[in-house]
Automatic annotation (TrEMBL), chain B:
Family: Belongs to the binding-protein-dependent transport system permease family.
Entry GO CC: ATP-binding cassette (ABC) transporter complex
Domain ABC transmembrane type-1: start-end pairs: 85-264
Cellular localization per UniProt: Cell membrane; Membrane
Domain of life: Bacteria
Species of origin: Meiothermus ruber (strain ATCC 35948 / DSM 1279 / VKM B-1258 / 21)
Protein name (Swiss-Prot/TrEMBL): Binding-protein-dependent transport system inner membrane protein
Molecular function (Gene Ontology), one example: carnitine transmembrane transporter activity
TM helices/strands, residue ranges: 43-59, 64-82, 88-111, 132-159, 212-231, 243-260
Pfam family, one: BPD_transp_1
This protein's record includes keyword Isomerase: no
Keywords: Cell membrane, Membrane, Transmembrane, Transmembrane helix, Transport
Length: 397, 279
């Protein structure tokens, strides 16, 4: 179900936007429009849907219209044409007073340069949205303190923004955006002004909060790594248009055009792909049900040098090598069990990126098992496929 | 030139048709001014100096500063100009109050509307370049001789910096901060009272300071149309070529100016000290 819906949205900057709109709808592009009547095409026929609870990233270079699009959602910028719907409410037609109320109840916003009020202390900054809503001082301070604690800034409530570091300021910005408990968070280059280490820390913090809060987040960034790390889905913008929408993997696997492909050329697939996307079916032997001979036959058919042993419930027990099995069969016949031949292997878990998994592959040349959190065997990943994926030669489906 | 005649005709028309209106305005302003004057002249120099000392201490937390402020007030008494000094101070305070009442809203409108700003800027330029004596004539014609035309002339002369610096202060508020207030659903009034005015406060106080200084400078000129006080002393000094008399009154004006200037500056520093401390 879509929660935020954007339909045929246009934004043209300039005094004669109506006339310019007709030109754009008639097929005039951004450069021509500017050359002809000096109007800037900010947004060109945008159609988007964001699902409830989704982390949606809008990405593009500066001037691509991403910040404009974000601001049209809560009408900090008025669109020239088109509709924005949040739930059942048509934001674009709300009268002024109702729009203010709607902003108070629906949107929290986080800004690139924090935009804290320098003359208010941290607690009052965090509770500012509640102050605007007219809540009593006691309620404001109670809720403000709770949010300060959640972003790890208890003890700073009496400080002023000028006394905080950039990372701390943005924690305050985040707490302020969440304070009125709105369903939607709008984040405009929220971490772009922070240095890389702090930025990573803030990204983790945001993901952790999102796990608990399940807000609908629209996050604008020009940083592709950030987009891929955070976003459930990503919209890539260029010249006021949305060029492609999809998950990180979809976009990486099938870029919509050369522009997106060029954009992606700097991305490291090792950071994007997850191990389970490379999964293959291994030769599996069930302990206590199958003997040495049956195991060897399976490996022979598959051309494999080893097999993965599970118990009756599917829990991974270990790995056996074909050569050891053959030796044991020769020496002891069918009497020998599989147990004595089991060898351990390092295991992967779903959600691991290739980069994280890479060190485990240095220990052995054999395919590594992926186990779920209880230890059940889901499949294996071969070293060859891992390398192919990292080199961009293998694209997961 | 016909323009001069036209302006004369216009003023005559105003006086003939709206004489009663001006009379009412005049009465209102007069009682406003007399309120300040009564307050100050009823207090002895000791009380005024004491209040100024306390204000100085409260604003700066520096004993030397507060003592200096008190001393400035005492100097006026010591020069034997206490009563005249208080008449002047009352005129200045009343003029500053009226200037703030007029200047703040106009400045806010300018800060919010580029159109209104474009309309006001040339008017303000004209007000500030026009020789101050020119204001005396219509004030005299419309309100007669006395304290009220002096007050009006002083306000016209002193109000432009209040308007300009209010406008500047509002325009210097960071765009992103204003956007944040808007994004969280602040109404126009909430933005003004919770964001714009507090952040423009240093500029507002700078405007208040300049307005006060200009009002003091106008005091001597306004004495020509019947404002009493220190200006009158200077004027008498000029007319009688009594250098000493003029100089003593001049020193008293300077003392007033320094006390007012430093108190307002201290207020400005106190207002931002809280949050200007970087870590």
């Amino acid at each position: 179900m879509s929660f935020i819906r954007v339909e045929n949205l246009y934004k043209i900057f300039g005094p004669k936007a109506g006339q310019a709109l007709e030109m754009v709808q008639g097929g005039t592009d951004k450069d021509t429009l500017f050359q002809k009547i000096r109007h800037v095409l900010g947004l060109n026929r945008i159609n988007l849907e964001v699902k409830q609870g989704e982390f949606f990233v809008i990405m593009g270079l500066s001037g691509s219209g991403k910040s404009t699009l974000l601001r049209v959602l809560n009408r900090l910028i008025e669109p020239t044409a088109g509709r924005v719907l949040v739930g059942d409410t048509e934001v674009t037609t709300l009268p002024h007073k109702e729009l203010l109320r709607f902003r108070q109840d629906t949107f929290g916003m986080v800004f690139q340069h924090f935009a804290l009020l320098p003359h208010y202390n941290i607690l009052r900054n965090v509770a500012f949205p509640l102050e605007l809503k007219g809540l009593s001082r006691k309620e404001r301070e109670e809720q403000g303190m709770a949010w300060l604690e959640r972003v790890g800034l208890s003890g700073y409530e009496k400080h002023y923004p000028g006394q905080l570091s950039g990372g701390q300021k943005q924690r305050v910005g985040l707490a302020r955006a969440l304070c009125a408990n709105p369903p939607i968070l709008l984040m405009d280059e929220a971490f772009s002004a922070l240095d890389p280490l702090i930025r990573k820390e803030m990204q983790d913090e945001l993901l952790r909060l999102q796990q608990e809060l399940k807000k609908t987040i629209v996050f604008v960034t020009h940083d592709l790594d950030e987009a891929m790390r955070l976003g459930d889905r990503i919209a890539i913008m260029r010249d006021g248009e949305v060029v492609q929408v999809g998950t990180a993997e979809e976009i990486l696997a099938r870029p919509a055009d050369d522009y997106v492909a060029a954009f992606l050329s700097g991305v490291n697939p090792a950071k994007i792909y997850k191990v389970e996307e490379l999964v293959q079916e291994p030769v599996t032997v069930v302990l206590e049900r199958e003997g040495l001979r049956s195991a060897l036959r399976k490996m022979g058919q598959a051309g494999a040098v080893n097999a993965y042993v599970v118990n009756r419930s599917g829990f991974f027990q270990g790995m056996v090598r074909a050569e050891k099995l053959a030796e044991a069969l020769k020496a002891e016949g069918e009497r020998g069990g599989l147990e004595s031949l089991l060898e351990p292997l390092p295991a992967l878990s779903p959600g691991q990126t290739l980069e994280e998994a890479l060190p485990l592959f240095s220990e052995t040349a054999l395919p590594l098992p992926i186990l779920d959190e209880k230890g059940r065997l889901l499949g294996v990943v071969t070293r060859g496929r891992l390398i192919a994926a990292m080199a961009g030669r293998y694209v997961p489906q | 030139m016909d323009l001069a005649e036209a302006i004369n005709a216009f003023v005559r028309w105003l006086v003939q048709n709206y004489g009663e209106t001006f009379e009412a305005i005049s009465q209102g302003l007069l009682s406003f001014l007399l309120f300040f004057e009564g307050l100050l002249r009823d207090l002895s120099w000791f009380w005024v100096a004491g209040l100024v000392f306390l204000a100085g201490w409260w604003l700066s937390r520096r004993l030397v500063f507060a003592l200096g402020m008190g001393l400035g007030v005492w100097l006026i008494e010591a020069l034997g100009l206490w009563d005249k000094g208080m008449q002047t101070l009352a005129l200045v305070l009343a003029a500053v109050a009226v200037s703030v009442i007029i200047g703040l809203p106009l400045g806010i409108l300018m800060g919010r509307s580029d159109r209104f700003r474009g309309f006001m800027l040339p008017i303000l330029d004209a007000m500030q370049t026009m020789p101050s004596f020119v204001y005396l004539i219509p004030a005299l014609l419309l309100f007669g001789l006395g304290k009220v035309p002096a007050l009006i002339a002083t306000v016209i002369y002193a109000v432009p910096p209040m308007i300009r610096l209010t406008d500047l202060g509002l325009r210097m508020v960071q765009r992103e901060v204003m956007e944040a207030a808007e994004a969280f659903g602040a109404t126009s009034w909430q933005r003004l009272l919770k964001v714009e005015l507090p952040l423009a406060l240093p500029n507002l106080l700078a405007g208040l300071n300049q307005t006060t200084m200009m009002a003091l400078a106008m005091v001597v000129i306004a004495s020509m149309i019947g404002a009493r006080g220190l200006g009158e002393e200077v004027l008498l000094g000029i007319q009688r070529l009594d250098v000493g008399r003029g100089a003593v009154a001049g020193v008293a004006i300077v003392a007033l100016a320094i006390v007012l200037d430093r108190l307002i500056q201290a207020a400005g520093q106190r207002a931002v000290k809280r949050y200007r401390e970087e870590r």
